């Protein structure tokens, strides 16, 4: 089914259905690319492929599909600035077709026990590789199995017909988000056995699970322009190399998220979603600027700002409740505050003032931003006398849940 500039394959599409959708989209994509393909034409085939690779890497945000598998045509990819390897490959094939460069689709599997492809990219008949998801020009991740699809062949045989391509968080499809350790390997980060154990422990820690959820929701809501700031850094980092400011900042945020049990790919998805929304939460925006300027907001301020930005409601410090929300919601926000507030503060500090320049409209139930005497240059913010016991009680409950002995 076509929806404007996107082809919706179907929910939980099979391997064969996804392949056919990708290949069927290329003729239409080629017609669209006829109007702009020349801008990628280089002095030779190598330079042409490099121009296509650079455009995708530096301008398109990688965003994996969930259960609803989609193939974006070039117009959709260029408009939304996001897509996965399916859409990257359709775009690349369309441009190369217009420039008369013979090429093939490469379906790759990295599982030694399963030839079912989990990734797709493009290789010219001369051997030049265009895989912006892998991130290195004319290079590819070593695959266990590969299937080549010259564009004059309508179907690739040899792939199990009812298996889905790729897998991620219960979803499947070509371009599905890779695991955290796969992300690290693809980016040349060698994790020791000890590091993997520590990351794995953070991944399942209840405090960390709840905290990561809060952080991702704040980004997806674009609380205080959080996603806008991160997206600006992410886009700039793609045109830089290690040792340059934006690249180093983004890598620091990625590694911090990884070490806290998170998957950087999920962080990218949250940034892409949030960056499309208008910043809201003036209080949260103010706290971000204050933290970037060297002031440290206290937990009560972070909670009040997050509640107004996420729920459009006011946090009652005296009762420890969020008006109109169940006690369970309040418990998650408050109990995990030491985790998510620290994480948010760390990301904001890494971003720095230069990336937090936007403003945000007030959210419903917005708490007055800052009390008289508070400023971005320092000082001590007033702490709520009611909040401390709430945090202690919440922390004790979390600790009991995390540390309670299991049944023998």
Describe this structure in words.
- With 408 residues, this protein is α+β, with helices and mostly antiparallel strands.
- The protein folds into two domains: 2-177, C8orf32 fold, CATH 3.10.620; 183-403, no CATH class.
- Helices cover 47% and strands 10% of the residues.
- It has helices at residues 15-33, 45-59, 74-80, 85-98, 180-186, 193-204, 206-220, 226-237, 245-259, 264-275, 282-292, 299-311, 327-335, 337-351, 387-403, and strands at 2-3, 6-11, 61-62, 68-72, 82-83, 103-109, 119-124, 129-130, 145-150, 315-316, 321-322.
- The strands form four sheets. It has a four-stranded antiparallel beta sheet with strand order 8-7-6-9. The protein has a three-stranded antiparallel beta sheet with strand order 1-2-4.
- Strand 1 (2-3) and strand 2 (6-11) form a beta hairpin.
- Residues 152-173 and 371-408 have low confidence and may be disordered.
